[in-house]
Design a protein that fits this description.
Length: 182
């Protein structure tokens, strides 16, 4: 019975987090810029959710990951370079139409890991990630992101107080949907 209660509590907390991220996205949509909801998979195969606000060549976001044995919250900052036209765009207003364009970027992310469970350990940690990637718009409000980089991870076991740090490769694919903005 206790496991069922824990599982229900975890699901409710998951729904609260998603609701909060959507609420933040709609609040940001009132500003001059673009708001994106992103979902995808990272190196570890864990699902990744992110709400980001983009204005000009800068993008800031909040991210959230959760699986049965792991959860993380983070903030990200990305800086975009000039776009590269991959697929010829015959639209009259090429400046506003992003379809077929690749937007390369560099990104820095900082994450807090409030909970992880291994085979013999349980604890908390942090991660700092730097990556390069690209966002290509398939439709005006839908894009695919791909990135690669490195993550510095630190974790501490709650019982033994043993800490472990290391650098891991990081790569992933995200689907981006523009929720609002210009």
């Amino acid at each position: 019975m206790e496991r069922i209660t824990e599982k229900i509590e975890k699901e409710v907390n998951e729904m609260k987090r998603i609701f909060l991220m959507v609420l933040v996205a709609f609040m940001l949509a009132g500003f001059s810029g673009k708001v994106f909801a992103q979902w995808g998979f990272e190196t570890t195969g864990k699902s990744y959710r992110k709400i980001s606000y983009s204005s000009g060549k800068n993008e800031g976001g909040i991210s959230y990951q959760s699986e049965t044995d792991f959860s993380a919250y983070g903030i990200t900052y990305a800086r975009y370079a000039n776009s590269i036209e991959i697929i010829a765009n015959n639209q009259d207003d090429k400046k506003k139409n992003r379809t077929g364009k690749l937007f390369p970027y560099c990104e820095l992310g900082i994450n807090y890991i409030p909970e992880f469970k291994g085979e013999v350990s349980k604890g908390t940690g942090y991660a700092v990630q730097i990556s390069v990637g690209g966002k290509i718009f398939c439709l005006q409000n839908f894009a695919l992101n791909a990135y690669a980089g490195a993550t510095y991870i630190g974790m501490k076991d709650k019982k033994t107080k043993i800490s472990v740090t290391g650098i891991e490769p990081a790569y992933g694919i995200l689907f981006s949907f523009q929720l609002g903005g210009d």
